[in-house]
Amino acid sequence: xxxxxxxxxxxxxxxxxxxxxxxxxxxxxxxxxxxxxxxxxxxxxxxxxxxxxxxxxxxxxxxxxxxxxxxxxxxxxxxxxxxxxxxxxxxxxxxxxxxxxxxxxxxxxxxxxxxxxxxxxxxxxxxxxxxxxxxxxxxxxxxxxxxxxxxxxxxxxxxxxxxxxxxxxxxxxxxxxxxxxxxxxxxxxxxxxxxxxxxxxxxxxxxxxxxxxxxxxxxxxxxxxxxxxxxxxxxxxxxxxxxxxxxxxxxxxxxxxxxxxxxxxxxxxxxxxxxxxxxxxxxxxxxxxxxxxxxxxxxxxxxxxxxxxxxxxxxxxxxxxxxxxxxxxxxxxxxxxxxxxxxxxxxxxxxxxxxxxxxxxxxxxxxxxxxxxxxxxxxxxxxxxxxxxxxxxxxxxxxxxxxxxxxxxxxxxxxxxxxxxx
Length: 422
Description:
The chain has helices at about 5-10, 15, 45-60, 80-85, 95, 150-160, 180-185, 205-215, 220-225, 240-245, 300-315, 330-340, 355-365, 375-380, 395-410, and strands at about 35-40, 70-75, 105, 110-115, 120-125, 140, 170-175, 190-195, 250, 255-265, 275-280, 290-295, 320-325, 345, 370, 385, 390. By secondary structure, the protein is an alpha/beta fold.
């Protein structure tokens, strides 16, 4: 085959697409679908499917589109994710177009423009209000289960999907049993396709599949991240999804005290546990609000200390609470090396993780704790934490930091200082 023939064949997505990467033609109600949820494991080809679908909408390529869509929304977890994954990524929009039809990406304006006049606009789920005003004929939302302001962002997007005869949206996401995802899956105008990581094995490194399957096969984390299953509550977990959803609010009120809690790893390097970094505050009436999860993985002490201090500064927190079981005075000295002015409160564990977490879980059941926004990775740990720890056997670093933050606000005498706004 000539080079031109090879490029022509490679541009034919309908030849190479997996079954799960092509939407069904009709929704369960027998009508054309309005929402397509592509739920799959890591590396299952979700991003490629999303990029090819948007390409088809912009250029009016059958069978995925009947005519070009002029205005398209691209919504990712953050602005960085939209750019690095959805647009410029190895399976992103720029990569899936042949060179002669490739759109022009203007990062300063967050616009992707095709030669036929179609334009895709990039939005971050961290800023739902940015979707107020623009209007679209279709939308691609990526990793919605990880969005902090998922419901607010989704709602604003729906008001903007008002152009053309039948505005539609594609949602590509790793599964998490969030209330929004579960509700969308049940809507009669939605279609759902699923895929495990192994469905796309041809395009993945063999060593990757071998190592992750050996480590996570048949675990809850593996079933979620590799098999693409939506895992419901663990029966013996201290928290449930329903409990956490009942505690969720959009924003925190003025807080009397704010702390940033750090659960440092016992070692550093690629094999080290994550460093849990969670912030929480308490109102003058005693209501606790979880306001940030800045946990960092595989970081050196200098890196996680700088991350914790940056969060402390940003929130104007009163103290940085650090667990010292693993590193003793080393934890305090590392933080002081970065910034000696940070007030560090050392805490030491005298009981197991489960026993420490039980009183905090009780506060949730009593309605005394609120989550200001969504913290998917933290909430996954909470709903998978039982007497034996996490089902994957990994350390619950985010949960540990959460427990230290809430405990320092409620079970110590440090919880009644001056009142001030967040």
